[in-house]
Design goal:
By secondary structure, the protein is of the alpha/beta class. Helices cover 36% and strands 25% of the residues.
């Protein structure tokens, strides 16, 4: 059985983007002409997911509103004859069915997943973090679904990072089974340089089996009093099997200011209307710096 639901945790405060995120959810910050959350939702929809479960908190209603029907806006656009914009707005509201679950206290990513148990039920599901944008010919989630279909066990997305950056990520070690696929033997959360030879870093895409909920219930709070998804995944590794998949594509950390700027430039250059003029503008800027 392939997953049909995707959980997207969006309850974070977005402190790395203050003051911009004082009243605007970080997931609604715009990369060119779409909020980051829309890129994530479009990825899961294209991958065949039928329902999105948003894990929200107070002050996040703008995210739900973005994917909802807007009578006033659609009526205004129709009256003004702005049919292209009208069609685009309608497509957003028709993308997918969205369900919201509240995470009442910020107790970590593991807890954010845990609160979705009653909605997801006894079936595998996808988890996508709203900070990670991945551009790929085949959507990252779709690639992972292909791996899950073969192995029928938990799959986490990884990418190779420079050795000097491993202390910023969860790092996996394991046996290479085939091109891009590893059976995980160890997960190290933010290891110090020199403590592991692996440079495979976990990024914000997971396919989880329903057993993860039992593991999360048995997981004690870790650093900062939070329930860590990584700790529950380590339990899965010991009790069943855990696979890491080195996805094909380019990932941007949109939760980091520099990564966010990189994403804007990357997607801006590939925009069908803006890409050409934007490229020429960047060339002029580079010339001006020479």
């Amino acid at each position: 059985m392939l997953p049909k639901k995707a959980v997207i945790p969006v309850a974070g405060l977005g402190t790395r983007f203050l003051p911009a995120t004082k009243v605007i959810p970080k997931e609604m910050l715009t990369v060119v002409d779409r909020p980051t959350i829309q890129y994530i939702v479009e990825e899961v929809v294209t991958s065949g997911i039928k329902e999105v479960v948003l894990v929200t908190a107070s002050g996040k209603s703008a995210i739900e509103d973005h994917f909802d029907y807007s009578f006033e806006l659609e009526t205004f656009l129709a009256q003004k004859g702005k049919l292209d914009l009208l069609n685009e707005v309608r497509q957003i509201s028709r993308l997918i069915e969205v369900v919201s679950v509240r995470q009442k206290r910020p107790l970590g990513l593991g807890h954010a997943v845990q609160v979705t148990k009653q909605v997801v039920g006894n079936e595998p599901f996808v988890v996508c973090l709203g900070d990670d944008l991945v551009e790929a010919d085949i959507p990252c989630v779709k690639q992972m679904l292909n791996v899950y279909e073969k192995y029928q066990e938990t799959v986490i997305a990884v990418q190779e990072v420079p050795e000097e950056e491993i202390s910023r990520y969860g790092i996996v070690e394991g046996e290479k089974l085939e091109d891009g696929i590893f059976k995980v033997s160890r997960i190290i959360e933010k290891p110090a340089p020199g403590t592991t030879k692996s440079r495979l870093a976990v990024i914000g895409r997971y396919i989880l089996r329903p057993e993860i909920y039992d593991c999360l219930e048995r997981t004690l709070p870790g650093v900062g009093g939070e329930i860590q998804l990584t700790d529950a995944l380590d339990t899965i590794r010991k009790e069943r099997a855990l696979y890491a998949y080195k996805f094909r594509g380019k990932r941007f950390d949109a939760g980091d200011k520099f990564g966010f700027l990189q994403a804007i430039i990357h997607y801006g250059l590939r925009h069908p209307q803006l890409g050409g003029p934007f490229k020429e503008y960047l060339k002029d800027i580079v010339k001006g710096l020479e």
